[in-house]
């Protein structure tokens, strides 16, 4: 079966869009792709990840979303436990950024929810430095405030280089940096 010239032109245009995304070019097509709710079966380019961002402060979540999207990631934001559950049921995530919550208990429930539904997802806990870490089994931690605004993007990139949870030897999953003591 032969293809029509219109079909060939359409395929070439799609190929150029994918190449632009793979080269991390900042084109309108690239930014639009970051906002699409992909099915879990879509192949994500190697430099990109699907990242779940949780928390209760909408302004912080918006900032994190923009920073991670500018780094080429697809970001899903969920502020409530039902929204987090729905996101976990619909989407595979390589990284979950668990931000500030109303209580330590709620943060632990969010952690458990992500681990239960997406056990291979790397978890980065973001916490206020004066409060300390809550999630002792997270894959990494980021204390706020930080001097470098790019620290979040760097931590996500470092987590993507690691072997998925549950498949690595215990020594390979040690935290990247200890910012504060663990809290139970």
Describe the structure.
The chain has 184 residues and is of the alpha/beta class. The chain has a single domain, classed as Response regulator (Rossmann fold, 3-Layer(aba) Sandwich), CATH 3.40.50.2300. Helices cover 39% and strands 14% of the residues. The protein has 6 helices and 5 strands, in the order H-H-E-H-E-H-E-H-E-E-H. The protein has helices at residues 5-22, 28-34, 58-70, 81-90, 104-117, 151-160; strands at 50-54, 74-78, 95-98, 122-128, 140-144. The protein has a 5-stranded parallel sheet with strand order 2-1-3-4-5, with helices on both faces. Helix 5 (104-117) links the parallel strand 3 and strand 4. The longest helix is centred in the N-terminal third of the chain and has 18 residues, at 5-22. It is globular. It starts with a helix and ends in a 24-residue tail after the last helix. Residues 7-11, 14-46 and 165-184 have low confidence and may be disordered.
Note the topology.
Blueprint: H1 5-22, H2 28-34, E1 50-54, H3 58-70, E2 74-78, H4 81-90, E3 95-98, H5 104-117, E4 122-128, E5 140-144, H6 151-160
Parallel strand pairs: 1-2, 1-3, 3-4, 4-5
Helix pairs in contact: 4-5
């Amino acid at each position: 079966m032969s293809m029509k010239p219109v079909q060939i032109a359409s395929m070439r245009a799609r190929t150029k869009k994918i190449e632009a995304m793979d080269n991390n070019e900042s084109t309108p097509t690239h930014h639009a792709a970051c906002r699409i709710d992909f099915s879990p079966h879509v192949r994500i380019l190697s430099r990109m990840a699907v990242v779940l961002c949780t928390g209760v402060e909408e302004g912080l979540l918006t900032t994190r979303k923009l920073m991670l999207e500018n780094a080429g990631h697809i970001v899903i934001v969920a502020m409530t436990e039902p929204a987090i559950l729905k996101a976990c049921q619909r989407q595979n995530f390589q990284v979950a950024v668990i931000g500030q919550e109303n209580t330590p208990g709620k943060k632990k429930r969010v952690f458990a929810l992500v681990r239960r539904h997406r056990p291979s997802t790397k978890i980065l806990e973001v916490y206020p430095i004066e409060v300390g870490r809550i999630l002792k089994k997270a894959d990494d931690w980021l204390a706020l405030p930080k001097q470098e605004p790019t620290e979040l993007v760097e931590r996500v990139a470092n987590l993507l280089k690691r072997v998925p949870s549950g498949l690595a030897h215990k020594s390979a999953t040690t935290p990247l940096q200890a910012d504060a003591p663990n809290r139970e």
